[in-house]
Specification:
Distance between the termini: 28 Å
Order of helices and strands: EEHHHHEHEEHEEHE
Shape: globular
Number of helices: 7
Largest sheet: 6 strands, mixed
CATH architecture: 3-Layer(aba) Sandwich
Strand order of the largest sheet: 1-2-8-7-3-4
Radius of gyration: 17 Å
Strand content: 15-25%
CATH topology: Rossmann fold
Number of strands: 8
Helix content: 25-40%
Number of domains: 1
Structural class: alpha/beta
């Protein structure tokens, strides 16, 4: 899965925000690649399919070993890209990484911890603050697997701060992490819940891939470095 994600990381541009209608105005978001709903020559569609595969789907697959290995390669590929995107000093001192919570509660057969695992692998050996700060209080169908997606209001109602990870303050910049940006609903809910607890907290996001509907690619930017 080498070469699936073009360098460098990009900031979401103003002309692209119409593809993500629930994203809060002015919210800053980095993304690593684009999905355009066609045959992606870079292999990003395939990468995301491996990355999002649930443990139950892998277990019932006739090729469990290949499916499991594909998911692990996808996690390693995303982790490697994140490692190249964020400078070591920023990771150690400035940033708190917050994975968007799974749609399933721990213990559910389809619960997947790929986001927190990716972050921990990406910044292994650094003094990184990787914190599963948010959780859903009930399990729901994943949006990508359902014709009827949760409304913003419903998602907000079932998303909460996990007190086990909230005892100490966040670092200067909280970085939400998710795999695919569609409407922006999950990022908006996560940032609102964090700012309810810490009103002055700065929050941005980094996404593996955004769903591009109309807009051309954003201009390249220099990744966050320190």
């Amino acid at each position: 899965m080498t070469g699936w994600l073009p360098e460098p990381t990009r900031w979401l541009a103003s002309g692209e925000r119409g593809d993500h209608t629930l994203l809060a105005p002015g919210f800053q978001c980095l993304y690593l690649g684009e999905l355009r709903g066609d045959q992606d020559r870079s292999g990003l569609d395939a990468l995301i399919a491996h990355y999002k595969r649930s443990p139950l789907d892998i277990e019932v697959s006739s090729g469990r070993g290949r499916a499991r290995a594909g998911k692990e390669r996808a996690i390693a590929a995303v982790a490697g890209r994140l490692r190249r995107t964020f400078g070591a000093a920023a990771v150690a001192c400035t940033l708190t990484f917050v994975p968007i919570p799974s749609s399933k509660r721990p213990g559910h057969p389809q619960y997947c911890d790929r986001l927190v695992r990716t972050l921990r692998l990406a910044f292994r050996g650094l003094d990184a603050d990787v914190r599963p700060l948010l959780r859903q209080c009930v399990s729901t169908r994943a949006d990508h697997a359902s014709r009827e997606r949760l409304s913003y209001e419903r998602l907000l109602a079932i998303t909460e701060i996990d007190p086990a990870h909230a005892a100490r303050p966040l670092r200067a910049l909280a970085v939400l992490f998710d795999d695919v940006l569609t409407s922006g609903k999950h990022l908006r809910v996560a940032s609102e819940r964090i700012r309810e607890r810490w009103p002055a907290q700065e929050v941005i996001a980094v996404i593996v891939a955004r769903r591009a509907l109309r807009a051309p690619p954003a201009p390249s930017v220099r990744a966050l470095r320190a």
